[in-house]
Amino acid sequence: MNDIQRVGDLEIVQDLEFQRRAWAIQRLSWIGWGLIAVGALAGLFGSGPLSRGNVSSPSDSLQLEYDRFGRFHAPAKLKIILGAGSEQNGKVKVWLSRSYLESAEVQQVTPQPEWVEASPDRLTYVFRTTALDRPTAVTFYLQPDQVGRQTGQVGVTTGPTLRFNQLIYP
């Protein structure tokens, strides 16, 4: 309800109910922007403590470092750390689930694999190696091709399997 009040020589029209609603909306907006700022600092939209994921097998013979959050068509990487005992006959076979690779394009693999084997549910990258007496890293540089939650699996043919989740922003 509009109430006309006289303050000195001025007549002021006030709608206190509307003003209270506007203040409530303003407070909610400030809280929302604050939450967005805290999320950005924490790593929900880029680098920060929440942005990096790390999973490992119980024996630590296989570890995976990955980005929990990514952007559509922006560079991303998966770093697989192989422990001792991963090699067999001078070769290490690292695989990625085909369902994950259908949502991302592999741009580069470091070190370069000797060859790649395809099967219905995975792609296996074969690397020549000597006996692994210390941890060795294989890095996959990817470009996400789909937006949303992506679930992937990575493993060594003769060893453990790791599961990971990513959220790809538009």
Question: What's the structural blueprint in terms of helices and strands?
Answer:
Blueprint (H helix, E strand, L loop, with lengths): L2 E5 L2 E5 L1 H27 L9 E5 L5 E6 L1 E3 L4 E7 L8 E7 H4 L2 E7 L4 E4 L3 E7 L7 E9 L3 E9 L4 E9 L1
Structural write-up:
By secondary structure, this protein is an alpha+beta fold. The chain has a six-stranded mixed beta sheet. The protein contains two helices and 13 strands; from the N terminus they run ββαβββββαββββββ. The chain is 18% helix and 49% strand. The chain has helices at 16-42, 98-101; strands at residues 3-7, 10-14, 52-56, 62-67, 69-71, 76-82, 91-97, 104-110, 115-118, 122-128, 136-144, 148-156, 161-169. A hairpin with a 5-residue loop joins strand 3 and strand 4 (62-67).
Order of strands across the main sheet: 5-13-12-7-10-9
Uncertain parts? none
Distance between the termini: 45 Å
Secondary-structure content class: alpha+beta
Main sheet: strands, sense, barrel? 6 strands, mixed
Order of helices and strands: EEHEEEEEHEEEEEE
Query: What is the helix fraction of residues, given as a range?
Result: 10-25%
Q: How big a fraction of the residues is strand?
A: over 45%
Count of distinct strands = 13
Radius of gyration: 26 Å
Shape: rod-shaped
The number of helical segments is 2
Calculate the mean pLDDT score and round it. 87
